[in-house]
Write the structure tokens for this entry.
Amino acid sequence: MGGRTMAGRMMDRAAGCGREPAAILRPRQFDLRATLNSGQVFHWSEVEPGRFTGTIGSRRVEILLRDDGGLEVDASQQEAVSRYLSLDHPMDEIIGSFPPGDEALRQAVAFCPGLRIIRQPAWECLATFITSSLKQVSHIRQISLLLRREFGRPLGAGQWAYPVPEALAAAGEEALRRCGLGYRAPLLWSTACLIAREKFSLGFLDDPEVPQGEAVARLCALPGVGPKIAHCVLLFAGGRHGCFPVDVWVERVMRELYASQTAGLSRRGLEEFVAGHFGPWAGYAQQFLFHHARLTFRRAVERPTGSGPVRTRRRGASPLNQ
DNA sequence: TCACAGGGGTAGT
DNA sequence: ACTACCCCTGTG
């Protein structure tokens, strides 16, 4: 190792680029592992305990999670990593903004207070969530990695950038289908074409001049994009932290935990309730609730100790009821 | 080994 | 509101 490192340093000097000195980031109340595994992004790997590899936009990134909680990154990437991981988010203020009497949310926050909503590149986020419908995380991940490998720019060390819209447009629907997209292939392809041909621009995602409702409507005009995905993209890539994606998990949790307030509400009515109830950081509330529900429920299912009733119907399962 | 549900939604009826 | 949609994974 030592010899290799020394040789590497010498080569780096000779080349005038290469490995920079490491920088240590020391975020407070931040859980890297949970954040990268919370279903916001699907392309990071923990290749060995504490060593995370992935990409941020078109750069390959490695993050070392130290035992003391510090994050070790190349000094040249310090700023990009801090921004991507939203290390600047005011967590005390965010959590303090939640409704004080909301016991379910308090529990969800306590379950994983270090969860962070990261800042994703717009197209990568949109495209990934178009492929996510009616799928499990492992499958989304597989598709995402396949698309990168097939159509993305190679970044070395087994990493590829997410393919630009032009690349997916040029690839064609059939090639996308071969990456396992199924019926989503024409949807992703059409959207890629619209953006590649500049019939549609994503510039409005974080434009404060464009109100949230209009931003949602504009996104929903894209093939394969409905309200859930629109909210995901605005939350994860547009920095609109009032957005609250309602999917089957969240809907189930909401109808159980806020039963009296959501009784008889349609999906649409549910969206209006959450907007009023959770406030300006509603998106964070959603992430805390969703993350808690997902992991707690998974744990309940992964206990297949014979004898008892083998099947637990989803309908009756109450992920948060201890 | 092999069926067979069912999955973080959307679009069309 | 209700249903089909392609493909993969987990389960028995």
